[in-house]
Write a structure and sequence with these properties.
- By secondary structure, this protein is mainly α.
- It contains 9 helices and no strands.
- The radius of gyration is 19 Å and the shape is elongated.
- The termini are far apart.
Length: 196
């Protein structure tokens, strides 16, 4: 790829990232092209579908989360590695509105541009879970698919404004339910928010 074409592609990706953060994964490709100050034909030359654009945008983040799982596996206790990775994965997922629905669909669709990245990410979490289970630190009646679903559910809590203040507390509740070690998920400020 020529340097100017790569520069155009990188610019479109940066603009798309901002647009998806603001409007969600259903943002119009025409709107992304307009914001990037390129023609729709130029955008479609680089990314022929919305999913291709999302795959290019999200692949780096998926790879980083997968690499982080490996680093945590090597450097932290099984329970700390699992809870840290789960917390970071949920935080990352909340950046792009609507991405959890896309990720869940991509897991099942082998033709999806996001399939391989999502499967790899789910497998990274499953390895951390299996390690914690083998150490007796996590319940054994859940698997990587359940963990992936919990990431989606916990990320959704940040979307509705009424629930967002409860998201951290509810993360701690869910993490505590996964772990069997007493106190392994205690975090500062883990008390429930006030209000109904």
């Amino acid at each position: 790829m020529r340097a100017d074409a790569r520069k155009n592609r990188d610019h479109v990706l940066a603009v798309a990232g901002t647009a998806i953060t603001e409007q969600g994964v259903d943002v119009s490709l025409r709107d992304v092209a307009r914001r990037a100050d390129v023609g729709l034909a130029t955008l479609l030359r680089h990314f022929p579908t919305r999913e291709a654009l999302l795959e290019a945008l999200l692949r780096t983040s998926f790879d980083e989360m997968t690499a982080q799982a490996g680093e945590l596996d090597a450097s932290s206790s099984p329970e700390d590695a699992l809870v840290s990775w789960l917390r970071d994965c949920v935080a990352w997922t909340t950046e792009y509105r609507g991405v959890t629905v896309l990720m869940a669909a991509a897991i099942e669709d082998t033709e999806s541009a996001l399939h391989a990245s999502c499967v790899t990410l789910r497998a990274a979490g499953a390895r951390l879970l299996a390690r914690a289970q083998a150490a007796g630190a996590a319940r054994t009646d859940i698997d990587g698919t359940d963990l992936f679903a919990l990431v989606a559910a916990l990320a959704w809590l940040s979307d509705p404004p009424a629930l967002a203040p409860r998201a951290d507390h509810l993360f701690d509740v869910v993490a505590s339910a996964i772990m069997t070690s007493a106190g392994s998920t205690d975090t500062p400020g883990g008390t429930p928010p006030s209000g109904p």
